[in-house]
Amino acid sequence: MLKKLTQQVKEYTKASLLTPLFTALEAVVDTMVPLAMGRMVDMGINQKNMNAVFLYGFTMVLLAGLGLLFGILAGKYAAYASSGFAANVRDAMYTNIQTFSFANIDKFSTAGLVTRLTTDVTNLQNAYQMIIRIAVRAPMMLLFSLIMAILISFDLSRVFLVAILFLLIALSFIISHATPLFRSVFKKYDDLNASVQENVSAIRVVKAFVREDYEKKKFGKAAENLYHMFVKAETLVVNNQPIMMLAIFGSMLGLSWLGAHYIVLGTLTEGELTMMFSYVMGILMSLMMLSMIFVMVTMSSASAQRIVEVLEEESSITSPAGGITEVKDGSISFKNVDFAYSTGTGEPVLSDINLDIKSGETIGIIGGTGSSKTSLVNLISRLYDVTGGSVLVGGQDVRSYDLEALRDQVSVVLQKNELFSGSILDNLRWGKPDATKEECIEACKLACADEFIQTFPDGYETHIEQGATNVSGGQKQRLCIARALLKHPKILILDDSTSAVDTATDARIQEAFRSYIPDTTKLIIAQRISSVQNADRILVLDNGHVSGFDTHEALLSNNEIYREVYESQTQGGGDFDQKGGM
Protein backbone atom coordinates (compact mmCIF):
# COMPACT_ATOMS: atom_id res chain seq x y z
CA MET A 1 0.00 0.00 0.00
CA LEU A 2 2.75 2.48 0.96
CA LYS A 3 4.66 1.78 -2.25
CA LYS A 4 1.56 2.51 -4.32
CA LEU A 5 0.95 5.80 -2.53
CA THR A 6 4.56 7.03 -2.45
CA GLN A 7 4.64 6.67 -6.24
CA GLN A 8 2.25 9.63 -6.36
CA VAL A 9 4.76 12.03 -4.75
CA LYS A 10 6.50 12.40 -8.17
CA GLU A 11 7.52 16.02 -8.87
CA TYR A 12 6.91 16.96 -5.23
CA THR A 13 9.78 14.80 -3.98
CA LYS A 14 12.04 17.85 -3.46
CA ALA A 15 9.43 19.62 -1.32
CA SER A 16 8.78 16.38 0.56
CA LEU A 17 12.51 16.17 1.42
CA LEU A 18 13.02 19.86 2.24
CA THR A 19 10.11 19.82 4.70
CA PRO A 20 11.69 17.30 7.12
CA LEU A 21 15.10 18.99 6.66
CA PHE A 22 13.84 22.40 7.79
CA THR A 23 11.71 20.71 10.44
CA ALA A 24 14.80 18.96 11.82
CA LEU A 25 16.71 22.25 11.91
CA GLU A 26 13.75 23.85 13.70
CA ALA A 27 13.80 21.04 16.29
CA VAL A 28 17.57 21.42 16.86
CA VAL A 29 17.25 25.18 17.36
CA ASP A 30 14.27 24.80 19.72
CA THR A 31 16.24 22.30 21.79
CA MET A 32 19.04 24.83 22.27
CA VAL A 33 16.74 27.55 23.69
CA PRO A 34 16.31 25.94 27.17
CA LEU A 35 20.10 25.48 27.36
CA ALA A 36 20.64 29.21 26.82
CA MET A 37 17.88 29.93 29.34
CA GLY A 38 19.52 27.75 31.98
CA ARG A 39 22.91 29.38 31.43
CA MET A 40 21.32 32.82 31.76
CA VAL A 41 19.82 31.82 35.13
CA ASP A 42 23.00 30.24 36.53
CA MET A 43 25.66 32.55 35.07
CA GLY A 44 23.68 35.74 34.71
CA ILE A 45 20.80 36.13 37.17
CA ASN A 46 22.27 34.10 40.08
CA GLN A 47 25.71 35.72 39.59
CA LYS A 48 24.15 39.17 39.03
CA ASN A 49 26.13 39.35 35.79
CA MET A 50 24.22 41.57 33.35
CA ASN A 51 26.67 40.92 30.54
CA ALA A 52 25.87 37.22 30.75
CA VAL A 53 22.14 38.03 30.89
CA PHE A 54 22.44 40.12 27.71
CA LEU A 55 24.63 37.54 25.97
CA TYR A 56 22.38 34.56 26.66
CA GLY A 57 19.25 36.68 26.16
CA PHE A 58 20.49 37.72 22.71
CA THR A 59 21.34 34.08 21.98
CA MET A 60 17.78 33.04 22.89
CA VAL A 61 16.32 35.75 20.58
CA LEU A 62 18.63 34.65 17.75
CA LEU A 63 17.68 30.99 18.24
CA ALA A 64 13.97 31.90 18.35
CA GLY A 65 14.36 33.85 15.10
CA LEU A 66 16.09 30.94 13.40
CA GLY A 67 13.39 28.57 14.69
CA LEU A 68 10.72 30.87 13.25
CA LEU A 69 12.47 30.98 9.86
CA PHE A 70 12.92 27.21 9.69
CA GLY A 71 9.32 26.70 10.82
CA ILE A 72 7.97 29.00 8.09
CA LEU A 73 10.01 27.23 5.40
CA ALA A 74 8.95 23.82 6.70
CA GLY A 75 5.30 24.86 6.68
CA LYS A 76 5.55 26.28 3.16
CA TYR A 77 7.11 23.16 1.68
CA ALA A 78 4.79 20.88 3.66
CA ALA A 79 1.72 22.61 2.20
CA TYR A 80 3.22 22.44 -1.31
CA ALA A 81 4.14 18.76 -0.99
CA SER A 82 0.89 17.58 0.60
CA SER A 83 -1.33 19.51 -1.83
CA GLY A 84 0.65 18.20 -4.79
CA PHE A 85 0.58 14.67 -3.43
CA ALA A 86 -3.21 14.85 -3.05
CA ALA A 87 -3.57 16.24 -6.58
CA ASN A 88 -1.50 13.36 -7.98
CA VAL A 89 -3.51 10.78 -6.03
CA ARG A 90 -6.79 12.20 -7.34
CA ASP A 91 -5.42 12.32 -10.87
CA ALA A 92 -4.16 8.71 -10.67
CA MET A 93 -7.49 7.52 -9.28
CA TYR A 94 -9.51 9.42 -11.89
CA THR A 95 -7.26 8.16 -14.70
CA ASN A 96 -7.68 4.56 -13.54
CA ILE A 97 -11.45 4.98 -13.14
CA GLN A 98 -11.62 5.99 -16.81
CA THR A 99 -10.34 2.50 -17.72
CA PHE A 100 -13.00 0.75 -15.61
CA SER A 101 -15.60 -1.40 -17.26
CA PHE A 102 -19.23 -1.18 -16.17
CA ALA A 103 -18.55 -4.19 -13.94
CA ASN A 104 -15.78 -2.31 -12.10
CA ILE A 105 -18.06 0.70 -11.60
CA ASP A 106 -20.78 -1.60 -10.27
CA LYS A 107 -18.28 -3.05 -7.77
CA PHE A 108 -17.41 0.29 -6.14
CA SER A 109 -20.65 2.21 -6.83
CA THR A 110 -20.65 5.80 -8.07
CA ALA A 111 -21.16 7.24 -4.58
CA GLY A 112 -18.27 5.16 -3.23
CA LEU A 113 -15.92 6.48 -5.92
CA VAL A 114 -16.97 10.07 -5.21
CA THR A 115 -16.23 9.62 -1.48
CA ARG A 116 -12.80 8.17 -2.25
CA LEU A 117 -11.94 11.03 -4.62
CA THR A 118 -12.98 13.70 -2.10
CA THR A 119 -13.17 12.84 1.62
CA ASP A 120 -10.64 10.01 1.56
CA VAL A 121 -8.04 11.99 -0.43
CA THR A 122 -8.45 14.98 1.91
CA ASN A 123 -7.81 12.72 4.92
CA LEU A 124 -4.72 11.35 3.21
CA GLN A 125 -3.49 14.85 2.36
CA ASN A 126 -3.76 15.96 6.00
CA ALA A 127 -2.00 12.83 7.20
CA TYR A 128 0.83 13.25 4.67
CA GLN A 129 1.42 16.84 5.77
CA MET A 130 1.61 15.73 9.40
CA ILE A 131 3.92 12.83 8.55
CA ILE A 132 6.54 14.88 6.69
CA ARG A 133 6.49 17.67 9.26
CA ILE A 134 5.14 16.88 12.71
CA ALA A 135 6.15 13.21 12.51
CA VAL A 136 9.73 14.45 12.01
CA ARG A 137 9.66 17.28 14.52
CA ALA A 138 8.04 15.35 17.38
CA PRO A 139 10.48 12.38 17.50
CA MET A 140 13.49 14.68 17.08
CA MET A 141 12.31 17.00 19.84
CA LEU A 142 11.63 13.96 21.97
CA LEU A 143 15.06 12.49 21.31
CA PHE A 144 17.06 15.72 21.69
CA SER A 145 15.17 16.77 24.83
CA LEU A 146 15.64 13.34 26.37
CA ILE A 147 19.37 13.39 25.63
CA MET A 148 19.75 16.84 27.15
CA ALA A 149 17.71 15.81 30.20
CA ILE A 150 19.89 12.73 30.72
CA LEU A 151 23.06 14.84 30.40
CA ILE A 152 21.75 17.27 33.01
CA SER A 153 20.54 14.62 35.49
CA PHE A 154 20.17 10.94 34.76
CA ASP A 155 18.18 10.37 37.96
CA LEU A 156 15.59 13.05 37.13
CA SER A 157 15.29 11.84 33.53
CA ARG A 158 13.84 8.55 34.77
CA VAL A 159 10.61 10.49 35.44
CA PHE A 160 10.31 10.98 31.67
CA LEU A 161 10.93 7.34 30.89
CA VAL A 162 8.06 6.28 33.16
CA ALA A 163 5.74 8.84 31.52
CA ILE A 164 6.77 7.71 28.02
CA LEU A 165 6.11 4.05 28.83
CA PHE A 166 2.69 4.91 30.28
CA LEU A 167 1.72 6.92 27.20
CA LEU A 168 2.88 4.27 24.73
CA ILE A 169 0.70 1.64 26.41
CA ALA A 170 -2.34 3.95 26.50
CA LEU A 171 -1.94 5.11 22.88
CA SER A 172 -1.48 1.57 21.60
CA PHE A 173 -4.78 0.57 23.21
CA ILE A 174 -6.62 3.56 21.71
CA ILE A 175 -5.24 3.08 18.20
CA SER A 176 -5.86 -0.66 18.06
CA HIS A 177 -9.53 -0.15 18.96
CA ALA A 178 -10.16 3.04 16.93
CA THR A 179 -8.79 1.85 13.56
CA PRO A 180 -11.59 -0.64 12.72
CA LEU A 181 -14.20 1.92 13.80
CA PHE A 182 -12.89 4.53 11.35
CA ARG A 183 -12.91 1.95 8.56
CA SER A 184 -16.61 1.45 9.21
CA VAL A 185 -17.19 5.22 9.30
CA PHE A 186 -16.01 5.72 5.73
CA LYS A 187 -18.31 2.99 4.49
CA LYS A 188 -21.16 4.99 6.03
CA TYR A 189 -19.93 8.02 4.07
CA ASP A 190 -20.63 6.04 0.89
CA ASP A 191 -24.24 5.48 1.98
CA LEU A 192 -24.66 9.18 2.79
CA ASN A 193 -23.24 10.28 -0.56
CA ALA A 194 -25.44 7.77 -2.38
CA SER A 195 -28.52 9.25 -0.71
CA VAL A 196 -27.52 12.81 -1.66
CA GLN A 197 -26.58 11.90 -5.23
CA GLU A 198 -29.77 9.98 -5.85
CA ASN A 199 -31.95 12.74 -4.42
CA VAL A 200 -30.29 15.60 -6.30
CA SER A 201 -30.23 13.79 -9.67
CA ALA A 202 -33.90 12.85 -9.32
CA ILE A 203 -35.13 16.01 -7.62
CA ARG A 204 -37.87 16.55 -10.23
CA VAL A 205 -39.31 13.11 -9.56
CA VAL A 206 -39.11 13.72 -5.80
CA LYS A 207 -41.07 16.95 -6.10
CA ALA A 208 -43.53 15.54 -8.64
CA PHE A 209 -44.49 12.77 -6.20
CA VAL A 210 -44.27 15.03 -3.12
CA ARG A 211 -41.69 12.73 -1.54
CA GLU A 212 -39.58 15.40 0.15
CA ASP A 213 -40.43 14.15 3.66
CA TYR A 214 -39.56 10.58 2.71
CA GLU A 215 -36.23 11.66 1.22
CA LYS A 216 -35.45 13.78 4.30
CA LYS A 217 -36.10 10.78 6.54
CA LYS A 218 -33.90 8.56 4.36
CA PHE A 219 -31.09 11.11 4.42
CA GLY A 220 -31.58 11.65 8.16
CA LYS A 221 -31.21 7.93 8.78
CA ALA A 222 -27.96 7.78 6.79
CA ALA A 223 -26.65 10.89 8.60
CA GLU A 224 -27.64 9.47 11.98
CA ASN A 225 -25.83 6.20 11.28
CA LEU A 226 -22.71 8.18 10.40
CA TYR A 227 -23.15 10.29 13.54
CA HIS A 228 -23.33 7.27 15.83
CA MET A 229 -20.28 5.66 14.23
CA PHE A 230 -18.26 8.89 14.56
CA VAL A 231 -19.33 9.36 18.19
CA LYS A 232 -18.19 5.85 19.00
CA ALA A 233 -14.83 6.33 17.30
CA GLU A 234 -14.22 9.87 18.58
CA THR A 235 -15.21 8.92 22.15
CA LEU A 236 -12.34 6.47 22.13
CA VAL A 237 -9.88 8.88 20.52
CA VAL A 238 -10.60 11.88 22.80
CA ASN A 239 -9.28 9.84 25.74
CA ASN A 240 -5.89 10.71 24.29
CA GLN A 241 -6.09 14.28 25.68
CA PRO A 242 -6.79 13.55 29.38
CA ILE A 243 -4.22 10.72 29.37
CA MET A 244 -1.65 13.14 27.96
CA MET A 245 -2.45 15.82 30.56
CA LEU A 246 -2.17 13.21 33.33
CA ALA A 247 1.32 12.34 32.08
CA ILE A 248 2.35 16.01 31.86
CA PHE A 249 1.17 17.01 35.33
CA GLY A 250 2.47 13.81 36.84
CA SER A 251 5.90 14.41 35.33
CA MET A 252 6.00 18.02 36.49
CA LEU A 253 4.99 17.00 40.01
CA GLY A 254 7.67 14.30 40.13
CA LEU A 255 10.25 16.65 38.68
CA SER A 256 9.45 19.39 41.20
CA TRP A 257 9.63 16.98 44.15
CA LEU A 258 12.90 15.34 43.16
CA GLY A 259 14.43 18.56 41.76
CA ALA A 260 13.92 20.39 45.05
CA HIS A 261 15.75 17.60 46.90
CA TYR A 262 18.71 17.69 44.49
CA ILE A 263 18.99 21.48 44.74
CA VAL A 264 19.06 21.24 48.56
CA LEU A 265 21.75 18.55 48.27
CA GLY A 266 23.71 20.76 45.89
CA THR A 267 23.77 18.27 43.02
CA LEU A 268 21.49 20.41 40.83
CA THR A 269 21.38 24.16 40.12
CA GLU A 270 18.31 26.36 39.67
CA GLY A 271 19.22 26.90 36.01
CA GLU A 272 19.49 23.14 35.41
CA LEU A 273 16.06 22.60 37.02
CA THR A 274 14.65 25.34 34.75
CA MET A 275 16.14 23.49 31.78
CA MET A 276 14.63 20.22 33.00
CA PHE A 277 11.16 21.83 33.17
CA SER A 278 11.58 23.09 29.62
CA TYR A 279 12.75 19.71 28.39
CA VAL A 280 9.98 17.82 30.15
CA MET A 281 7.47 20.07 28.43
CA GLY A 282 9.29 19.47 25.14
CA ILE A 283 9.23 15.71 25.66
CA LEU A 284 5.59 15.55 26.64
CA MET A 285 4.45 18.00 23.95
CA SER A 286 6.32 15.86 21.44
CA LEU A 287 4.42 12.86 22.72
CA MET A 288 1.17 14.81 22.41
CA MET A 289 2.01 15.65 18.79
CA LEU A 290 2.86 12.01 18.16
CA SER A 291 -0.49 10.99 19.59
CA MET A 292 -2.20 13.44 17.23
CA ILE A 293 -0.28 11.88 14.36
CA PHE A 294 -1.36 8.43 15.46
CA VAL A 295 -4.99 9.55 15.54
CA MET A 296 -4.72 11.12 12.09
CA VAL A 297 -2.92 8.09 10.69
CA THR A 298 -5.57 5.86 12.26
CA MET A 299 -8.29 7.80 10.46
CA SER A 300 -6.38 8.10 7.20
CA SER A 301 -5.25 4.46 7.10
CA ALA A 302 -8.83 3.44 6.32
CA SER A 303 -8.94 6.14 3.63
CA ALA A 304 -5.57 5.04 2.26
CA GLN A 305 -6.76 1.44 1.92
CA ARG A 306 -9.89 2.56 0.07
CA ILE A 307 -7.80 4.75 -2.26
CA VAL A 308 -5.33 1.97 -2.99
CA GLU A 309 -8.23 -0.36 -3.80
CA VAL A 310 -9.16 2.00 -6.64
CA LEU A 311 -5.55 2.49 -7.76
CA GLU A 312 -4.91 -1.26 -7.84
CA GLU A 313 -8.22 -2.19 -9.44
CA GLU A 314 -7.67 -3.54 -12.92
CA SER A 315 -10.39 -3.22 -15.50
CA SER A 316 -12.21 -6.47 -16.08
CA ILE A 317 -12.20 -5.56 -19.78
CA THR A 318 -8.90 -4.68 -21.47
CA SER A 319 -7.54 -4.56 -25.00
CA PRO A 320 -5.61 -7.68 -26.00
CA ALA A 321 -1.96 -7.37 -26.99
CA GLY A 322 -1.81 -6.61 -30.68
CA GLY A 323 -5.59 -6.23 -30.84
CA ILE A 324 -7.34 -5.76 -34.18
CA THR A 325 -7.58 -2.06 -35.02
CA GLU A 326 -9.95 -2.16 -37.98
CA VAL A 327 -13.59 -3.24 -37.99
CA LYS A 328 -14.31 -4.70 -41.44
CA ASP A 329 -18.07 -4.13 -41.45
CA GLY A 330 -21.11 -3.90 -39.20
CA SER A 331 -22.11 -7.57 -39.21
CA ILE A 332 -22.94 -8.98 -35.76
CA SER A 333 -23.16 -12.58 -34.57
CA PHE A 334 -24.11 -13.98 -31.16
CA LYS A 335 -22.87 -17.55 -30.72
CA ASN A 336 -24.39 -19.46 -27.76
CA VAL A 337 -24.15 -16.33 -25.60
CA ASP A 338 -24.83 -16.43 -21.87
CA PHE A 339 -24.42 -13.39 -19.62
CA ALA A 340 -24.77 -12.70 -15.89
CA TYR A 341 -23.88 -9.60 -13.86
CA SER A 342 -21.06 -10.29 -11.43
CA THR A 343 -22.59 -7.99 -8.79
CA GLY A 344 -26.07 -9.50 -9.11
CA THR A 345 -27.53 -12.83 -8.11
CA GLY A 346 -25.22 -14.68 -10.47
CA GLU A 347 -28.22 -15.93 -12.44
CA PRO A 348 -27.91 -15.47 -16.24
CA VAL A 349 -29.89 -12.53 -17.62
CA LEU A 350 -29.23 -13.77 -21.17
CA SER A 351 -29.22 -17.46 -22.05
CA ASP A 352 -28.28 -19.30 -25.23
CA ILE A 353 -28.52 -16.31 -27.57
CA ASN A 354 -27.81 -17.16 -31.23
CA LEU A 355 -28.21 -14.36 -33.78
CA ASP A 356 -26.73 -13.42 -37.15
CA ILE A 357 -27.15 -9.81 -38.31
CA LYS A 358 -25.89 -8.66 -41.70
CA SER A 359 -23.97 -5.43 -42.17
CA GLY A 360 -26.31 -2.55 -42.96
CA GLU A 361 -29.46 -4.23 -41.61
CA THR A 362 -31.91 -2.37 -39.43
CA ILE A 363 -32.89 -4.55 -36.49
CA GLY A 364 -35.69 -3.71 -34.09
CA ILE A 365 -35.49 -5.09 -30.54
CA ILE A 366 -38.54 -5.26 -28.28
CA GLY A 367 -39.27 -6.95 -24.99
CA GLY A 368 -40.79 -6.34 -21.61
CA THR A 369 -39.04 -4.60 -18.76
CA GLY A 370 -36.30 -6.91 -17.50
CA SER A 371 -36.04 -8.90 -20.73
CA SER A 372 -32.35 -7.80 -21.00
CA LYS A 373 -32.56 -5.73 -24.18
CA THR A 374 -29.93 -3.28 -22.94
CA SER A 375 -27.75 -6.10 -21.60
CA LEU A 376 -27.74 -7.64 -25.07
CA VAL A 377 -26.51 -4.54 -26.92
CA ASN A 378 -23.96 -3.70 -24.18
CA LEU A 379 -22.09 -6.87 -25.16
CA ILE A 380 -21.50 -5.62 -28.71
CA SER A 381 -19.11 -2.81 -27.73
CA ARG A 382 -17.72 -4.79 -24.74
CA LEU A 383 -19.20 -2.59 -22.07
CA TYR A 384 -19.58 -5.99 -20.42
CA ASP A 385 -18.05 -9.32 -21.42
CA VAL A 386 -20.05 -12.46 -22.05
CA THR A 387 -19.91 -15.18 -19.41
CA GLY A 388 -20.40 -17.84 -22.05
CA GLY A 389 -20.21 -18.08 -25.84
CA SER A 390 -18.96 -15.22 -28.04
CA VAL A 391 -20.04 -12.03 -29.78
CA LEU A 392 -18.60 -11.34 -33.23
CA VAL A 393 -18.44 -7.96 -34.99
CA GLY A 394 -17.17 -7.81 -38.54
CA GLY A 395 -16.51 -11.55 -38.34
CA GLN A 396 -14.13 -11.20 -35.35
CA ASP A 397 -14.69 -11.90 -31.66
CA VAL A 398 -15.10 -8.55 -29.91
CA ARG A 399 -12.49 -9.67 -27.37
CA SER A 400 -9.85 -9.72 -30.12
CA TYR A 401 -10.31 -6.03 -30.97
CA ASP A 402 -8.45 -3.05 -29.58
CA LEU A 403 -11.13 -1.52 -27.32
CA GLU A 404 -10.77 2.00 -28.66
CA ALA A 405 -10.97 0.80 -32.27
CA LEU A 406 -14.07 -1.30 -31.55
CA ARG A 407 -15.96 1.35 -29.59
CA ASP A 408 -15.07 4.00 -32.14
CA GLN A 409 -17.05 2.01 -34.71
CA VAL A 410 -20.00 1.24 -32.40
CA SER A 411 -22.00 4.36 -31.66
CA VAL A 412 -24.40 4.01 -28.73
CA VAL A 413 -27.23 6.28 -27.69
CA LEU A 414 -27.86 4.89 -24.23
CA GLN A 415 -31.21 4.51 -22.52
CA LYS A 416 -30.22 7.27 -20.11
CA ASN A 417 -29.15 10.15 -22.34
CA GLU A 418 -26.29 12.25 -21.00
CA LEU A 419 -25.20 15.73 -22.07
CA PHE A 420 -22.32 17.56 -20.44
CA SER A 421 -21.78 21.13 -19.33
CA GLY A 422 -20.72 23.22 -22.33
CA SER A 423 -22.14 24.43 -25.60
CA ILE A 424 -24.30 22.34 -27.91
CA LEU A 425 -21.37 22.19 -30.34
CA ASP A 426 -19.06 20.92 -27.57
CA ASN A 427 -21.51 18.12 -26.85
CA LEU A 428 -21.94 17.21 -30.51
CA ARG A 429 -18.18 16.98 -31.04
CA TRP A 430 -17.96 14.15 -28.53
CA GLY A 431 -18.94 12.10 -31.58
CA LYS A 432 -16.21 13.64 -33.73
CA PRO A 433 -13.74 16.06 -32.07
CA ASP A 434 -12.70 17.70 -35.34
CA ALA A 435 -16.22 18.04 -36.78
CA THR A 436 -16.95 21.35 -38.51
CA LYS A 437 -20.00 23.38 -37.59
CA GLU A 438 -21.53 22.46 -40.95
CA GLU A 439 -21.14 18.73 -40.16
CA CYS A 440 -22.77 19.27 -36.78
CA ILE A 441 -25.68 21.13 -38.36
CA GLU A 442 -26.16 18.33 -40.91
CA ALA A 443 -26.22 15.68 -38.16
CA CYS A 444 -28.73 17.74 -36.19
CA LYS A 445 -30.98 18.11 -39.20
CA LEU A 446 -30.98 14.32 -39.66
CA ALA A 447 -31.82 13.89 -35.95
CA CYS A 448 -34.56 16.56 -36.16
CA ALA A 449 -32.63 18.67 -33.63
CA ASP A 450 -31.77 21.65 -35.85
CA GLU A 451 -35.35 22.90 -35.77
CA PHE A 452 -35.36 23.55 -32.02
CA ILE A 453 -31.69 24.63 -31.81
CA GLN A 454 -32.43 27.47 -34.23
CA THR A 455 -35.04 28.79 -31.80
CA PHE A 456 -32.41 29.34 -29.09
CA PRO A 457 -30.95 32.89 -28.99
CA ASP A 458 -27.38 31.55 -29.14
CA GLY A 459 -28.17 28.69 -31.54
CA TYR A 460 -25.42 26.08 -31.56
CA GLU A 461 -23.43 28.07 -28.99
CA THR A 462 -26.24 27.65 -26.43
CA HIS A 463 -24.78 26.53 -23.10
CA ILE A 464 -26.01 23.20 -21.76
CA GLU A 465 -26.37 23.36 -17.97
CA GLN A 466 -25.11 20.59 -15.71
CA GLY A 467 -27.51 17.68 -16.03
CA ALA A 468 -28.96 19.26 -19.20
CA THR A 469 -31.69 20.90 -17.14
CA ASN A 470 -32.32 23.60 -19.75
CA VAL A 471 -33.43 21.21 -22.51
CA SER A 472 -36.40 18.83 -22.59
CA GLY A 473 -36.18 15.03 -22.65
CA GLY A 474 -37.01 14.87 -26.36
CA GLN A 475 -34.47 17.59 -27.20
CA LYS A 476 -31.83 15.77 -25.20
CA GLN A 477 -32.55 12.53 -27.06
CA ARG A 478 -32.26 14.18 -30.47
CA LEU A 479 -28.97 15.87 -29.55
CA CYS A 480 -27.56 12.50 -28.41
CA ILE A 481 -28.66 10.89 -31.69
CA ALA A 482 -26.97 13.69 -33.67
CA ARG A 483 -23.81 13.20 -31.63
CA ALA A 484 -23.84 9.50 -32.48
CA LEU A 485 -24.42 10.15 -36.20
CA LEU A 486 -21.34 12.37 -36.38
CA LYS A 487 -19.16 9.31 -35.84
CA HIS A 488 -20.35 7.61 -39.06
CA PRO A 489 -20.13 4.28 -37.19
CA LYS A 490 -20.28 0.76 -38.56
CA ILE A 491 -22.93 -0.03 -35.92
CA LEU A 492 -25.48 2.36 -34.42
CA ILE A 493 -27.37 1.32 -31.27
CA LEU A 494 -30.41 3.30 -30.14
CA ASP A 495 -31.46 2.11 -26.71
CA ASP A 496 -35.06 3.35 -26.38
CA SER A 497 -33.64 6.74 -27.40
CA THR A 498 -36.70 8.03 -29.27
CA SER A 499 -39.19 7.35 -26.49
CA ALA A 500 -39.54 11.07 -25.72
CA VAL A 501 -40.27 12.16 -29.30
CA ASP A 502 -43.57 11.93 -31.13
CA THR A 503 -44.29 9.22 -33.69
CA ALA A 504 -43.91 11.55 -36.67
CA THR A 505 -40.48 12.77 -35.55
CA ASP A 506 -39.48 9.16 -34.81
CA ALA A 507 -40.41 8.21 -38.39
CA ARG A 508 -38.41 11.15 -39.82
CA ILE A 509 -35.34 10.16 -37.80
CA GLN A 510 -35.49 6.57 -39.01
CA GLU A 511 -35.93 7.71 -42.61
CA ALA A 512 -32.79 9.80 -42.16
CA PHE A 513 -30.94 6.70 -40.97
CA ARG A 514 -31.90 4.81 -44.10
CA SER A 515 -30.77 7.58 -46.44
CA TYR A 516 -27.73 8.95 -44.55
CA ILE A 517 -26.11 5.78 -43.18
CA PRO A 518 -27.42 2.92 -45.35
CA ASP A 519 -24.31 0.78 -44.75
CA THR A 520 -24.45 1.17 -40.97
CA THR A 521 -26.02 -1.66 -38.98
CA LYS A 522 -28.79 -0.13 -36.89
CA LEU A 523 -30.14 -1.71 -33.70
CA ILE A 524 -33.23 0.04 -32.37
CA ILE A 525 -34.55 -0.87 -28.94
CA ALA A 526 -38.12 0.37 -28.48
CA GLN A 527 -41.33 -0.19 -26.57
CA ARG A 528 -43.51 1.05 -29.45
CA ILE A 529 -43.90 -1.47 -32.26
CA SER A 530 -44.47 1.48 -34.61
CA SER A 531 -40.82 2.42 -34.03
CA VAL A 532 -39.52 -0.95 -35.29
CA GLN A 533 -42.15 -2.42 -37.62
CA ASN A 534 -40.36 -1.10 -40.72
CA ALA A 535 -37.06 -2.67 -39.65
CA ASP A 536 -35.56 -5.43 -41.78
CA ARG A 537 -36.06 -7.84 -38.89
CA ILE A 538 -37.34 -7.63 -35.34
CA LEU A 539 -35.92 -9.44 -32.33
CA VAL A 540 -38.40 -10.34 -29.59
CA LEU A 541 -36.81 -11.00 -26.20
CA ASP A 542 -38.61 -12.71 -23.34
CA ASN A 543 -36.86 -13.10 -19.97
CA GLY A 544 -33.40 -13.21 -21.55
CA HIS A 545 -34.33 -15.69 -24.30
CA VAL A 546 -34.99 -15.16 -27.99
CA SER A 547 -38.73 -15.56 -28.52
CA GLY A 548 -38.69 -14.55 -32.19
CA PHE A 549 -36.44 -13.02 -34.83
CA ASP A 550 -38.11 -12.22 -38.15
CA THR A 551 -39.91 -9.55 -40.16
CA HIS A 552 -42.90 -7.68 -38.83
CA GLU A 553 -45.32 -9.64 -41.06
CA ALA A 554 -43.80 -13.02 -40.19
CA LEU A 555 -43.84 -12.31 -36.44
CA LEU A 556 -47.50 -11.32 -36.62
CA SER A 557 -48.28 -14.73 -38.02
CA ASN A 558 -45.90 -16.97 -36.04
CA ASN A 559 -45.11 -15.22 -32.71
CA GLU A 560 -47.88 -15.03 -30.15
CA ILE A 561 -46.10 -12.54 -27.89
CA TYR A 562 -45.46 -10.10 -30.73
CA ARG A 563 -48.98 -10.44 -32.08
CA GLU A 564 -50.60 -9.78 -28.69
CA VAL A 565 -48.45 -6.73 -28.10
CA TYR A 566 -49.14 -5.38 -31.59
CA GLU A 567 -52.86 -5.79 -31.10
CA SER A 568 -52.79 -4.20 -27.65
CA GLN A 569 -50.92 -1.16 -29.01
CA THR A 570 -52.90 -0.70 -32.20
CA GLN A 571 -56.28 -1.35 -30.62
CA GLY A 572 -55.88 -0.08 -27.07
CA GLY A 573 -53.03 2.39 -27.39
CA GLY A 574 -50.88 0.48 -24.87
CA ASP A 575 -47.21 -0.34 -24.97
CA PHE A 576 -45.16 -3.50 -24.62
CA ASP A 577 -45.26 -3.63 -20.84
CA GLN A 578 -49.07 -3.60 -20.82
CA LYS A 579 -49.17 -7.09 -22.28
CA GLY A 580 -50.74 -9.42 -19.77
CA GLY A 581 -48.39 -11.82 -18.09
CA MET A 582 -45.15 -10.22 -19.34
Write the layout of secondary structure elements.
Layout: H1 2-6, H2 13-45, H3 50-97, H4 102-108, H5 110-132, H6 134-152, H7 154-201, H8 203-208, H9 212-237, H10 240-265, H11 270-312, E1 332-339, E2 350-357, E3 362-367, H12 373-378, E4 388-393, E5 396-397, H13 403-408, E6 410-413, E7 422-423, H14 424-428, H15 437-446, H16 450-453, E8 463-464, H17 473-485, E9 491-495, H18 503-516, E10 521-525, E11 537-542, E12 545-550, H19 552-558, H20 560-572
Parallel strand pairs: 3-10, 3-11, 6-9, 9-10
Antiparallel strand pairs: 1-2, 1-4, 4-5, 7-8, 11-12
Helix pairs in contact: 2-3, 2-6, 2-11, 3-5, 5-7, 5-11, 6-7, 6-11, 7-9, 7-10, 7-11, 10-11, 15-17, 19-20
Tell me about this structure.
This protein has 582 residues and is of the alpha/beta class. It contains 20 helices and twelve strands. The protein has helices spanning 2-6, 13-45, 50-97, 102-108, 110-132, 134-152, 154-201, 203-208, 212-237, 240-265, 270-312, 373-378, 403-408, 424-428, 437-446, 450-453, 473-485, 503-516, 552-558, 560-572; strands spanning 332-339, 350-357, 362-367, 388-393, 396-397, 410-413, 422-423, 463-464, 491-495, 521-525, 537-542, 545-550. The chain has a six-stranded mixed beta sheet with strand order 6-9-10-3-11-12. Helix 18 links the parallel strand 9 (491-495) and strand 10. Helix 2 (13-45) packs parallel to helix 6, helix 5 runs antiparallel to helix 7 (154-201) and helix 6 (134-152) packs antiparallel against helix 7. The protein is elongated, with a radius of gyration of 35 Å. The chain starts with a helix and ends in a 10-residue tail after the last helix. The model is unreliable at 573-582 (pLDDT under 50).
